[in-house]
Amino acid sequence: MMHTFPQNFLWGGAMAANQVEGAWREGGKGLSTSDLQPHGIFGERVARQPGDFNIKDIAIDFYHRYPEDIRLFAEMGFTVLRISIAWTRIFPQGDEEQPCEAGLAFYDRLFDEMAKYNIAPMVTLSHYEMPYGLVSNYGGWGNRQTIVFFERYARTVFERYRHKVKYWLTFNEINMSLHAPFTGVGLPENSSRQAIYQAIHHQLVASARAVKACHQIVSEGKIGNMLLGGLLYPLTCRPEDMLEALQKNREWLFFGDVQARGAYPPYMARFFKQQGIEIAISEQDNIDLREPVDFISFSYYMSGCATADKTAALARGNVLDMVPNPHLPASEWGWQIDPQGLRLLLNMLADRYQKPLFIVENGLGARDKAEADGAINDDYRIAYLNDHLVQVREAIKDGVEVWGYTSWGPIDLVSASKAEFSKRYGFIYVDRDDQGNGTLARRPKKSFWWYREVIKTQGASLSQR
């Protein structure tokens, strides 16, 4: 029986520029959509005023403190770190002809620091943010011109970092645009489904163009998509619930189908007709889309249920609304905990796409409390991650090709949904609270040493609970 992961398995963590970097106006950085969301994805969008407060303006100050953080990641044994590039550090307004050298130089320094410890970067091109200039001046992804601006940005960073970055992702959790359109595609929250799907189409074309550019420019590059893994079970074995689960899962798998197979799946024709949606798709769009990704990456935090019963109560988790599963426990934030769902999802995606898979987000948000001696005994996080990694190992034994695992938030950061510090994910504690108080000092939690042992033993130290 195999107790360890493959020798070339990539171990690490994942985070986003707008949740860790801070330095929101340093180095020529422009205003991003995230800068206008001081209370997170589901908070009110506000105009920035001089002197106002946004906890993400400093976040954990990774922009200035990254050498210390990279050293701590190396101490855990990371072989990969997923980060995102802040698009507005490279093109502050989004439509400039020439990039901002200060922004490019920052990521050069970051990648060089990672190289000292043999930590491979995995870089997301757009993670829950875009230049606000493209929203205010062009209408965000609702405007076809944004495809051109994104391709220019992608080609710029591919050229600059082609010898430093091998692994790339296009858009973070691309399917979440259906649920948070301002964050995903720069459209108003009350936009019609017609407008949202047209913007999504432009984003899918841009993603495919970025894949092609990566293949042209980065000689050993591998580029993937990134899905919010919203696995749904039928609430009952009634055929109506089975069919509802099929259709609800297709809502998010549609994005993977286009990005992995190079064309719109046939089932979307019926969906668009029933919804009265007509997408403007050019012949060139269809050609562009025929550039499939090299691998499928996804986040997985929880599963949920689907039912044809319209009176069933919903619970919000991550970005999606799901019917709670009566057989599962939940976290403090109501996110249901389903380790076996990860094995199911890995097998489902492997069967569907026959491509390598990469788990790029998985973690537990919790309120960590320090003991009298300063120790943070986050056994609940260890249990969550242990049980999920055991299921990853089971999926690999099932025959699924999994390239790696990057836990979400290897260091405490500002949460995306509500811009909180109290919802902590990290192996490393950061001294800052929801009001922005604290020294920003770092210190390892109990899970830090646990994860280090997991990586050191290639998973042999995991507990089969």
TrEMBL record:
Keywords, in A-Z order: Glycosidase, Hydrolase
PANTHER family assigned: 6-PHOSPHO-BETA-GLUCOSIDASE ASCB-RELATED (PTHR10353:SF122), GLYCOSYL HYDROLASE (PTHR10353)
EC number: 3.2.1.86
Superkingdom of the organism of origin: Bacteria
Active site per database record: E361 (nucleophile)
MF terms in GO: 6-phospho-beta-glucosidase activity
Family membership noted in the UniProt record: Belongs to the glycosyl hydrolase 1 family.
InterPro entries: GH, GH_1_N_CS, Glyco_hydro_1, Glyco_hydro_1_AS
Protein name, as recorded: 6-phospho-beta-glucosidase
